[in-house]
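Let's study a protein:

___
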Amino acid sequence: MPIVKPTNKSVETLKGLHLYHTGFSNCAMRVRIALEEKGLEWESHALDLQKGENLTAEYFGINPNGVVPTLVDDGVVIIDSADIIDYIDQKFTPNSLRPSNECDLQQMYEWMYLARDNHLSIKTYMYSNVKNPQGMKRNEQEMADYREKQTFDSALLAFHERFNSHNGFSAEEKAQATAIIDQCFSKMDKRLSDHQWLVGENFSLADITWIPQLVVLKAANYPFENYPNLEQWKNAIIQRPSFERAVKQWLVLPSGVRS
């Protein structure tokens, strides 16, 4: 459980649930969906990533990755979206979002961690295929500032170093990221060929973890038509009230995506 001790002590006095997030972020979407599915009251702290509000010293003092989302629960700071939604579901027991069967529970975590472990492949695909990628790049001073602050996640730092380099991602790196994403969606499509949900017989954290990927990758023109069984699954989720409140109402497509 990625509970961190913030250096920005002001958040330790917050009462209730507070979410630092942005609209067009697959990781933030996960947390908002989980909060809505659980019927929880939460206070929004929306950050403008285009203005670098996630890269201030104040926010790095809350989340040492300088990314969204961050959940603060009565002063306790939790980072990493997969762990946040697991924390929410375990602490607040009504409207459970996990299977009761131990085998299914293990499969739920496998789906969740598959999404988390491949997040840099999704970012590589996104950053390579959205419109105006040059508008997403950081200048030399911004990168120097980011290097100084980003001491928590070396892989994320390496990602931004590569993206902001003169040459950007190589064709091989783009192909590798695409292949990883293709494998994930092929696995999902196979599962959904004879099941309504990714795990067990009910909507769960596994589905919550993956549905935002379709939202953000659609903006990058990912070929979802190659996976016909995803369509019914997707349509069932987007009809849920939680999707309307947690995704559609917050969805503003950016000209570039920074995180």
Notes: The first strand starts at residue 3 and ends at 4. The first helix runs from residue 26 to 38. The two ends are 21 Å apart (CA to CA). The chain has two domains: 3-91, 102-240.
